[in-house]
Amino acid sequence: MEQGSWLIVDTPAKAAEAAEDLGNSQVIGMDTEYDSLRYFREKLCLIQIKAVKKTYLFDPLGELDISFLGDFFASHSLCKVMHAGDNDLRILKRDYNFVFRNIFDTYRAAALLGSDRLSLCHVVSHYLGVEFEKQKKLQRSRWDLRPLKEEQLQYAALDTAYLPELYLRLRGELKQAGRDEEATRIFAEMTKVRWQTRDFDKEGHKKLARHHALTDKQKERLKRLFRWRYGKAKEINRAIFMILSDQELVDLSALEVGSVSELATGGLLPGGKLRLYGDELIALLDGFRDSTTA
Question: Considering only CA atoms, which of 275, 222, 215 is closest in space to residue 251?
Answer without folding.
Answer: 222
